[in-house]
Amino acid sequence: MEQQASEESVTEDRVLRLGIIGCGAIAHLHADAILKTEGVELSCLVDADEARARDLAALFRVNCPVLKDYREAVGRMEAAIVALPHHLHGKVNLDLLGAGIHVLCEKPLATSIEEAESCVAQAGEKKMTLGVGMIRRFHWTTALMRLLMSSGQLGSLERFEQVDGAAHSWPSATPFYFSRELAGGGIFTTMGVHLLDSLLAWFDDLEAAGYADDNFGGIEADACARLLGRVGSEIVPGTLRCTNLYDLRSHFTVFGSKGSATIHGDNTVSIEVRGAVAGRELAWWVKDPQAPEVLPPDYVYFQAQIRDFAEAVRTGRPPRADGPTAVRVLRIIDQCYGMASRLEQPWMELALFPEGEVA
Length: 359
Description:
By secondary structure, the chain is α/β, with parallel strands linked by helices. It has helices spanning 25-35, 50-59, 86-98, 113-126, 140-150, 180-183, 187-190, 192-202, 298-315, 323-338, 346-351, and strands at 16-21, 40-46, 66-67, 79-82, 102-106, 130-133, 157-165, 205-213, 222-231, 234-243, 251-256, 259-264, 270-277, 280-287, 340-342. Helix 3 runs parallel beside helix 4 (113-126), helix 4 (113-126) runs antiparallel to helix 10 and helix 8 crosses helix 10 (323-338).
């Protein structure tokens, strides 16, 4: 990219001009958040399908430039949200960072560790901010769970389980989710990246100890990993299960010697704690007193992410979900894929035997 962004720094009293690169489903949430957040403005919309970008502009009644090529947007923005199919993330991130554009990239940062590391290196070399769209980092329950786990409230941590499952229903503008080359993997990449990032918010460190999925040569739709988390000097074993085939009772639970704590499904505000009080087993809910009483709409968390990213750009501090952490997540995914075995599917095993040969 020949054209360079303005060298004028983004100060506290200046509005941050943000462009959106890729105008599919997730871009609607980003656009909504930008338009509802002070200190930022939507400066341009970019999509190879220009009609899609124009539809997004019309939906939110914005009169910003609509472009087909992200390279034409340099000079119109100081920062960009990259919301493209996964296989394009690495190249576009590198081009934008190289042109002096700060980047907030939707997950994953890239489809390979090498490309992700190059993005981190480019951001460091150019002194650009590189954030990753890990929206769960902004849920009230994320910081609260970290506090419960590290405070000793649950006693000695013994194990954890993380489950996330729902029939696939994301309204993607393209079918890239169903290609390993374009998405980087199946459900363990597309949803597992969020779940692993949450675990890295709760544990000091995390490593893979085993992994199985239902991949028969394409992408996996059902996956289970055995993991080891560390909090201080404690090593805590656990499991992660994710699927996009059917609904599961999604939750994260950590079990300790004095009780357990659970984030249930899409509850982004409060956590269920169980434990003994005066010899009696009880359950109660805990929340930050500043958290809302009812679950807020999604755009509230996207606003929090935009505010965090804008502050990182202005101050030079890392965003809450940064490039190095995104690389750590990709390394764990790569570890798991490297030790993959076949997930047990008894109904498939029966099909391998001719009729009458199964006892």
